[in-house]
């Protein structure tokens, strides 16, 4: 499949659009804030399984009636498995007490359904804050490592564009989580790290082709070189990103509540990462190439 689009001709339009989206997401992140999960905020996660059929609404109603500060209740496993995950917010001193109250409520109100607590994980607010810091540090170290790799693999002029594109991807996804108020947890940090790896792989493929075309046509204009490189790799981008996106959307729609948010981030990340490889990373390479040419002239 051969493409012949003028990608370079639209760089300013899409660059401006991306800058506005990133600015809007940053405003949302710093004003409204992320909805941190139990991992990062502190609280308790209790997994319970019933021998008899229990509806999600029934369980939620009993928790509310007992004044238990539950933030989320979701089903787990296959339909009819009668397995649920409860996420509870409470201060560090009250966590054990709240967990005991959940056990008492299950036995008193739903004892005839055969409740069995499979898991009871407690995370204190201080531990949650440390996990939150570690999660964002992992993202920062991943970006730094990728910048060093790109600078060594290609030239320095390629590295800033790759990092700016990845930061763009992360901020857009964080903004989506603020807008939807989906829980931001350790599994979402894992999704962001996977997206960073996926996005940089797509960027490297385009960069590699840019370098090949540049070596073969040293007198050509950089915009022409970039257009040729993107068009040459576009079929590969469509096939790989398209098939991965189909899988991610299927898992998002059919995979169940436990992995729902993870694949929401992955689906959005594949779209945004593919876009940023073309319209963020490559234009920055042209910009840094111009600066380099001016400095050496």
Give me the secondary-structure topology.
Elements: H1 11-31, E1 35-36, H2 38-41, E2 43-50, H3 56-65, E3 70-76, E4 83-88, H4 95-109, E5 115-123, H5 125-153, H6 159-180, E6 183-184, H7 186-216, H8 222-254, H9 257-296
Parallel strand pairs: 1-6
Antiparallel strand pairs: 2-4, 2-5, 3-4
Helix pairs in contact: 1-6, 5-6, 5-7, 6-7, 6-9, 7-8, 7-9, 8-9
Can you describe what's shown?
The protein is an alpha+beta fold and 297 residues long. It folds into two domains: 8-37 and 127-296, Up-down Bundle (Multidrug efflux transporter AcrB transmembrane fold), CATH 1.20.1640; 43-123, Alpha-Beta Plaits (2-Layer Sandwich). The chain has nine helices and six strands; from the N terminus they run H-E-H-E-H-E-E-H-E-H-H-E-H-H-H. The chain has a four-stranded antiparallel sheet with strand order 3-4-2-5. Strand 3 and strand 4 form a beta hairpin. Helix 5 runs antiparallel to helix 6 and helix 8 runs antiparallel to helix 9.
Class by helix and strand content? alpha+beta
What does the main sheet amount to? 4 strands, antiparallel
Unreliable spans are: 292-297
Distance between the termini: 40 Å
CATH architecture of the largest domain: Up-down Bundle
Quickly name the level 1 CATH class of the largest domain: Mainly Alpha
How are strands sequenced across the largest beta sheet? Answer: 3-4-2-5
Strand content: 5-15%
Number of helices: 9
Radius of gyration: 24 Å
- The tally of beta strands, per DSSP, is 6
Mean pLDDT value: 85
Question: What are the secondary-structure elements, in order, as H or E?
Answer: HEHEHEEHEHHEHHH
